[in-house]
UniProtKB/TrEMBL annotation:
InterPro entries: CybS (IPR007992), SQR/QFR_C/D (IPR034804). It comes from the Eukaryota. GO terms for molecular function: heme binding; metal ion binding; succinate dehydrogenase (quinone) activity; ubiquinone binding. One of its GO terms (biological process) is regulation of catecholamine secretion. Belongs to the CybS family. The keyword Isomerase does not apply. Membrane-anchoring subunit of succinate dehydrogenase (SDH) that is involved in complex II of the mitochondrial electron transport chain and is responsible for transferring electrons from succinate to ubiquinone (coenzyme Q). SDH also oxidizes malate to the non-canonical enol form of oxaloacetate, enol-oxaloacetate. Enol-oxaloacetate, which is a potent inhibitor of the succinate dehydrogenase activity, is further isomerized into keto-oxaloacetate. Keywords: Electron transport, Heme, Iron, Membrane, Metal-binding, Mitochondrion, Mitochondrion inner membrane, Transit peptide, Transmembrane, Transmembrane helix, Transport, Tricarboxylic acid cycle. Component of complex II composed of four subunits: the flavoprotein (FP) SDHA, iron-sulfur protein (IP) SDHB, and a cytochrome b560 composed of SDHC and SDHD. GO terms for cellular component: mitochondrial inner membrane; respiratory chain complex II (succinate dehydrogenase). Pfam families: CybS. This is Succinate dehydrogenase [ubiquinone] cytochrome b small subunit. Heme b binds at residue 127.
Length: 184
């Protein structure tokens, strides 16, 4: 109950009433019990594992909030490469490929040629490989199963790239194939 009362003080239940001397009493006055009961729901939600203000969390636990920035950080999936240069470059590479696709798709529509076909084959395969790889990392548990899933993904990506290159070389190519589909 004392934690709830401290929460109501922190949330400003009595701000602007001029009752500063009663603000830190052990029990709330009879007229404010309803306000404390309403704040009980807030306290229950603040105790759940969601983003919550670090100052409120520290205040409820009688600890100072060091380096308070407004929220607590939540890490949803474990990072195997935490802080490594390779992970940072991989993340940057994913973003570069995504932005490259934003420009490459309209360019391929405006200028369909074999260079665009092979560029699309490479970037689409790489983009889908990295995207499905993140799904495998997040949702496949167990080292052996995850390693098998990633190996299968690598084989699938290699066959996808080889198939797209074969289609570009022996058939009309990706750009003209999409244009033919749009004409239907």
């Amino acid at each position: 109950m004392a934690a709830l009362w401290r929460l109501s003080v922190l949330c400003g239940a009595r701000e602007g009433r001029g009752e500063g001397s009663r603000r830190f009493s052990a029990q709330p006055p009879a007229g404010e019990r309803d306000a404390v009961r309403i704040r009980l729901l807030g306290a229950l939600f603040l105790r759940t594992p969601v983003v919550r203000p670090a100052l409120v969390s520290a205040f409820l636990q009688d600890r100072p909030a060091q380096g308070w920035c407004g929220t607590q950080h939540i890490h949803l999936s474990p990072s195997h490469h935490s802080g490594s240069k390779a992970a940072s470059l991989h993340w940057t590479g994913e973003r570069v490929v995504s932005v490259l696709l934003l420009g490459l798709i309209p360019a391929a529509y405006l200028n369909p040629c074999s260079a665009m076909d092979y560029s699309l084959a490479a970037t689409l395969t790489l983009h889908s490989h990295w995207g499905i790889g993140q799904v495998v990392t997040d949702y496949v548990h167990g080292d052996a199963v995850q390693k098998a899933a990633k190996t299968g993904l690598l084989v699938l990506s290699a066959f996808t790239f080889a198939g797209l290159c074969y289609f570009n070389y022996h058939d009309v190519g990706i750009c003209k194939a999409v244009a033919m589909l749009w004409k239907l």
